[in-house]
Amino acid sequence: MARPAVLWLLLALTACALAAPQNVVSKHALESLSLDDLDHQLQTCPIVQELSAVKHAHHAAAPSSLTTRLFAVLFPGSPAVNALLATLYISGPPNFLLALCPTNIDPSSLSVMVAFAVGGLLGDTLFHLLPEIFLGEDEPDRVRFVLVEPNRNLVLGLAILVGFMTFVAMDKGLRIATGGAGHDHHSHAHAHEADAQTTAAAASGADTGTGNGQVKSRRKGKSKKEDANEDQHKEVNPSVKLGGYLNLIADFTHNITDGLAMSASFYASPTIGATTTVAVFFHEIPHEVGDFALLVQSGFSKRAAMASQFVTAIGALMGTLIGIAIQEFGGGNTDGEASMPRNAGLWGTSLTWGDMLLPFTAGTFLYVGTVAVIPELLETGPNKMQELRKTLVQFSAVAVGAGIMLYISWHD
């Protein structure tokens, strides 16, 4: 019994054969054709050619958008070159911005930026990555037909789940190592609040037995802030210090997945790569500031904390290079797919290992945009009116972040 996908293709090609009899293809021949060969057969159909001509004329008449021209300037090379450029964009500026951050910054004050990043990540995932994963890339000058492969969709869904659960395992492992603190990628101060308060109390002399000593110190010309900064590096709770080092490991691993996202998205299409870069960039700003604040709380000096963040940025470069290698040598490039029979891929599908990177990335983005960040946006304080205003601002920021991704996708 023929599979539904083969039956659909036979019907489509038979319909074309009514106008062009030379296009008749047997079922046995269809089984051995690659996706590229099948698409070529369909493109010879007069009906498809007419549809492609209409689409090409419409695209040629429409002016290119501002974002399209900007992306063409920022990413002018091959997928590999563009992925490396994107990694530089998402790793360099956020780390340099740390030089402007005060050491006593509270990550919770970045809630609006976090909400904006959530909208960008979820918008990129829902408007760009998932449609690209299951339907493929649209082309401006011709129509495309999507081959319905149920098992192919199952494997892609499995890869999304693996990406999601990989971050669950990372977060769970860090919580076990730190006694339940975890790594939420943004509000690290909340995760270590109890230890930080203990450290701050020791540094500021909140203990009643040291109050007179502080007064004498200030009389000698030292400010309370200077005393706190000096004592903070002397008296750091061991669990807070351990949390700082474990956070560096988690951040390094997280940056590897960002690098994989860069390579997978640019090999999928230039637009997907550009939008993913934008989403990750705005996510990295509050992420890096939160990590910076945690490292300072853990006893790092400002210079040491910045240097540590630059070291973790190497993880993004490693992830990008790994992703490029998988795409180039793992069968994920177009040339490899063109010569591969349709059922010769993973588990009898048309998929290759390179095709697994994009759904894996979508799974990690879903985790970061929901489980890792949404709980922070759900936190509330005792002042109801203040929290209501804060919630409206956060929801507006989410809408703006998602709206930018929708605008890019709509006008692409």
From TrEMBL:
Membrane-topology descriptor: Multi-pass membrane protein
InterPro entries assigned: ZIP (IPR003689)
One annotated GO molecular function: zinc ion transmembrane transporter activity
Subcellular compartments: Membrane
Source species, domain of life: Eukaryota
Basic and acidic residues composition bias: residue spans: 224-236
Cellular component GO terms, alphabetical: membrane
Signal peptide stretch: 1-19
Positions with biased composition (Low complexity): 196-209
Regions that span the bilayer: 70-90, 110-130, 150-170, 304-326, 356-379, 391-410
Keywords assigned by UniProt, alphabetized: Membrane, Signal, Transmembrane, Transmembrane helix
Protein's recorded name: Zinc transporter
Species of the source: Metarhizium anisopliae BRIP 53293
